Amino acid sequence: MQHLDVRVIEQALAWAREGETLWLCTVLATYGSSPRAPGSLLVVHRDGRHVGSLSGGCVEDDFLARLAEGEFARPVTTLRYGEERADGTGITLPCGGILDVLIERVVPDADSLVHLDVVLATLKGQRPLARRVDLVNGTRHFVEDDGIGPRVVLEAESGAAQIRMTPAARLVIAGISPVSEACAQFARGLGFEVFVCDPREEALAGFHVEGVEVRPELPSAFIAAGHCHAATAIVALTHDPRIDDLAMIEAVRTPAFYIGVMGSWRTSQARAERLQRSGGLSERDIARLHMPIGLDLGSKTPAEIALSVMADILRVQRGKARDAL
Known about the structure:
InterPro entries: MoCofactor_Util/Proc (IPR052698), NAD(P)-bd_dom_sf (IPR036291), XdhC_CoxI (IPR003777), XdhC_Rossmann_dom (IPR027051). This protein is an alpha/beta fold.
């Protein structure tokens, strides 16, 4: 699955390389219900061609009509949709929410090409960066980013927006089990790229989840090969230490934002001691491991356990402390 944001920036780069001016639109904030989350992207050519989306269509239609009339000539503009304007006009969103949109007019010069190239590399997981855009004059630069927390942060004092250019969220599932299958289904529904790794032929034969890439290899080998970026969660769900332990030893060497392994408190304690003794993990490495994995929901069935796992992954991804839930 190609992340939509990647397609937006690839198209922006293609138009810029052809010498075309383009408009890059970003959802800055939403209030109430909204069809697209903060950070969502849309790129528009002056002739109306576009890739990406900001809403279900009503916002895009209004923007395209106003662009055709010559608006948005400034380097940067911010618009609010969902409220009536001072002149009595405005777009009411079907969902009843409010949407703030950043519109950047991007001219096809060398600086813009470099900027878009870096954005694309970031979206593909090659660099952990965020864009910082001045909402008054349109100047922009990159800042280091840890990948955790809100995708867009508005800085009231400086009049700037910091926009995380995160790659598509990825879930690596180490080993196949009933919990693995349920977890893969939940993750696909949440928009994750999902990889399931297991070298056992009998386990592979019984696993079928649409849209999931199955790799017939040890999870530790897949992880060690460099397939995990900062927007990756790694979970081991088999109860087989030959699979789970090796996966954890490699996982802590990656920038993955979430690493977890299934097991009871007693099993987890024994695993921690084993990983330190035989796997060479430090106390800091052990502290990165979520074990027992997931939120404590009293889960019993595979689906309930998978739900608790994905809920905990989302909690960490959004920068929420457990006691803030």
